[in-house]
Amino acid sequence: MKFKLKWNREAKGRTPSWCDRVLWMVNERAMGKSGTFTVPTEYPKIDQISYGASWEILGSDHRPVFSLFNLGTVRVNGTSKSRIWSYLHRAWDQVENSQRPLLKFRPILENGIVDDLIPMGIDPNRKEIRNNIDFGIVEYPAVVTREMMVINAGNVPARFQFVPKMNSKSICQPWLQVAPMGGSLRPQGELKLTFTITINNWNAAPLNSRKDQLEDILILHLDGNVDYFITITGKYQVSCFGNSLSELVRYPGAIRYSEPLPEGSQSKLQLPKEIWRLINYIYASGVDQPGMGLKTPHLFMTHNSTPASILAVRDSLDTGTDFPSGMDVRTVAETLLKFLENLSEPVIPFIFYDVALQCRTFSDCRQLLAKLDPISYNTFYYLMAFLKQLLQFSADNKLTPESLAMVFSRVLLRSGNKNSEGEGVSSAVAMKNRIDFILPFLNPN
Fold this sequence. Notes:
The protein has helices at residues 78-98, 205-208, 245-248, 273-288, 307-319, 329-341, 353-357, 362-369, 374-391, 394-397, 401-412, 427-438, and strands at 46-53, 65-71, 103-108, 121-122, 128-138, 142-152, 158-163, 176-179, 182-185, 190-199, 215-222, 226-236. The protein is of the alpha+beta class. The protein is elongated.
């Protein structure tokens, strides 16, 4: 039945189109040998009751058709149906799982042995797999690596990649590096994953202020909508190294064991006590050891201290204990330089670095210092006063204003750009400008 638009029931005699038909089918076993249709009593019976069209819908020259049927059905055995359904569901699940990549993880111990005793944890829905890598105690500065073998235990190739967590653009914390970030594994293939924690003065401040912890969760996404969750844990030892001046003055006690004062507290220190302790030791060593202290030859000019001895001094600063007995004053002096070099932001803050390089007169330098926050201002002038006292014994310690300016300008003035000394300024010129900034403050006049 075909109609022209705007026509109502005037029909055009022709064979009905497919869209005008309603088809139905009965199990072919109901067909007789001669091809005639028979309905045995054990099969459903279908009777067409009516056939019609919807005359109200005029969007096409074909009217939607409908048909009403009366359907009889055999009785269903609920117990058998449930048993068969469960069997088919398990069978299909097995087929799906056999075609799904399956990864297994095995941590590599420090001696290089793959630990097969740590089981792989799988949740009941097989949608996420959790594994843990524990870095143990991590101290500043740190470059610590852990490794893990990943094995494709499935029957099909596995393609994977680490992906960011929800509401995050980064895959991991700034102090963590992962390699490789993705890859492909053939069935029964293996691949080594490397996880490295790097702690330095560029990223340690949140850890030292306890605003961040050595904890992260990495998401390894596998084709087939399976996510593997790798948990990173470690215990960071809070230190004055890699910290900021503004944070350190909030700790009247040992930073590792005490709580900081509130941000707006009036009881904050005027400058970090760590600087005072180091300089005070240099003063005091001259009392017990004649010819040492401020008279120590070439103090700050030699760098022969062992990492272990510097670490021992740093631990005393962090824990509030006395320096090791008989500690060489040159080691303490070198630790002071290391402390200043490892501040998360130098005494002259990053934002003033380029301005400082452009200072040409002593007046320019003092105007810049007047813009510093009180803690940076106090620390700078405290250090300059100490250096000027050192120069009073230059006949014994062989120090000059130029030599001290060269050493201390490197740690007091640092660029906020890891890869450059200053915008448009060569390294040699930047070094000279830094020295020229410090030198006037060491002038005895």
